[in-house]
Amino acid sequence: MMVPLEDFLAAAVRTATPLAFAALGECVTERSGVINIGLEGSIICGALAATIVAGGVGVTGGFAAGAAAGLIVTLIFALFTVYLRADQIITGTAITLLSLGFTGLVYKAFYGATGVGLTIPTIGAVDIPLLSNIPLLGRALFSQPVVTYALYAIVPIMTWWFWRTHTGLALRAVGESPDAALAAGVRPRLVQLLAVLFGGAFAGIAGATLVLAQSGTFVENMSAGKGFIAIAIVVLGRWTPLGVTGAALLFGGASALQYLFQSLGWSNVPYQLFLALPYVLTLVVLARASGRSAAPAALARRKLTLG
Amino acid sequence: MNRALAPVLAAIARVAVLLAVTLGLLVVLLVTSGYDAGEAMQAMVRGAAGSWYAVTSATLVRAIPLALAGLAVAIAFRAGLLNIGAEGQLLAGAAGAAAVATLAGKTPGAYMLPLVLLAGVVAGGAWAGIASWLRQRFGVLEVISTIMLNFVALNAVGWLVRGPLQEPTRIYPQTEALVPSLQLPVLLSGSRLHLGVVLAVVLAFVMWWWMRATAGGFRLRAVGMNADAAAVSGRINVARVSLFAFLASGALAGLAGAVELTGVTYALYESLSPGYGYTAIAVALLARLHPLGVLGTAVLFGALQAGGNAMQRDAGVPIALVNVVEAVLILLVIAADRLQDVRTRRSITRTDDAAPSLPGNAVSVPS
């Protein structure tokens, strides 16, 4: 019993890592008053860029390429939403469709129709001495790839940044009241642009993580709605870095349940049930969390300021 | 005389621009991704319009689900509801239709085919109803809920065709093929064009008339343009209009699934739809949410899909290229709308960005 549970927790943290990256990035974006539904597009482009680059240059280059690709995709989104003030949701949907098609095209151009023989270097788990031996939680928290450990630093830094720095205040001000921010000397469009690009880069890293720390290969449409799940995670995490990370863990757990049930031998439960579980959980979570919302007041607003 | 012709000429001009831009995009993408553009475009044109068979059995057959799902997206967007879930509702409709067809047994009466289609309508509507309920009861953003429901529907179909609805030999993950009396009749002998095309055209005209000539249609447009204004007018029950729009949207998408099942595939399986529900968003937006326009853009995208398949088969160009073209077309429409919007407003008031923040105004909607 012990071993399956330990495996389950380790799988939960592993699955949660890309979700946490995407959701933390989206958290920053939404704090500036922009909701980026095109996150899914940044994830899939990040995954493909990481695949292509990691094969030649290695995994570090792969992660950098993933971040860059995610950033470039959101640059299009930012141009439409921050500068043309087009509808964020329709633009985001179009960006997602564009990215899914584009990655399919490039993938086939690079690897042929089948993609057979595609092997990508991946980063393995790094055991942290002593800590990884803690019963039950040791392997889950301290025997993971380096990207997971990066989160341990990013979450406190981001919390500090949001609440204890001038730029963090400027970010939140733009999301709550762009007019007030403008009056205080902040440039709302610039803040939104940077926040959107930050979210795109993080989504790109999430995509790179999917490939370089998990599957070791690229599959068309492999993002499988994770961008949308990340948006639900931000709502559940109530727009705070720590809350978002906790929510990502919950979703990681839901996805990892299938491994737990496999190891317990519950094979008579249809596996589609487990595949559908994270999506159903998203709906339940949004239903519970959406009502008493802590959303930035100016979220998804098209009219920015008079300026 | 001239005045009567003006909208027709405008429509023709719009179609010409659309076609030119689409073909231009295709060529640019083909050249930049290193394919032989001449060979690929030849395959494209041959597959989409090269013969009578290509037009009726490839292009138009694909245009049918696109038109029905496009109408589904259009009615929801017109009401300010961003229903991205046409794909899931289409699958739910196909699954509902397949379930009733399975129950009908080996020798169903003539009345069963309408019932099978009706089951698709009800299942699609019910699937959209979940998103509507989540929005009205809990305030869940319908963009996210409908996308999540797409994934749930896909997994549910995956389970159905390996479980309760699997064909009797239990080898293939699909339902048993429909008996001929449950198949939609073919309209032109020697082609695959089925009765669904009549359904799509009739429904487009009905929706067009309903939107512009009835009180219900007016209420729906009013809610879509400004839900707050519609609510304070005191005569419009916004929640009820939204629920109706969502159910109608799901019903149309569900019908698309049922028609695809009874007209083309004759069996339910997971890859029944090559993303018709997502392409339908492009179909609706490009038609500027106009029901009759949807018929036109559905044929355009049907041709793109048919030609894309031929391009993949004969010239080795991945069909994903067609999806890229579709997405770029959506972005171009958004950009054109916004640029026009900003320019008009500047010339009138010199104030920037007075755009209302409701999604219903995301694309400029003709009234």
Note down, in words, how this protein is organized:
The complex is a heterodimer of chains A (307) and B (367). Helices cover 72% and strands 1% of the residues of chain A. Chain A is mostly helical. Chain A has a two-stranded antiparallel sheet with strand order 1-2. In chain A, helix 1 (2-31) crosses helix 10 (226-236) and helix 11 (241-264) runs antiparallel to helix 12. Chain B has one domain (2-361): ABC transporter involved in vitamin B12 uptake, BtuC. Mean pLDDT of chain B is 87; it is low at 349-367. Chain B is mainly α. Chain B has helices at 2-32, 37-49, 52-78, 86-103, 112-138, 142-160, 196-213, 215-225, 227-232, 238-265, 276-286, 291-315, 320-349. Chain B has 13 helices and no strands. Classes of the chains: A mainly alpha (307), B mainly alpha (367). At the A-B interface, helix 4, helix 10 and helix 12 of A face helix 5, helix 6, helix 11 and helix 13 of B.
Task: Record keyword descriptors for this entry.
heterodimer; A: 307 residues; globular; B: mainly alpha; ABC transporter involved in vitamin B12 uptake, BtuC
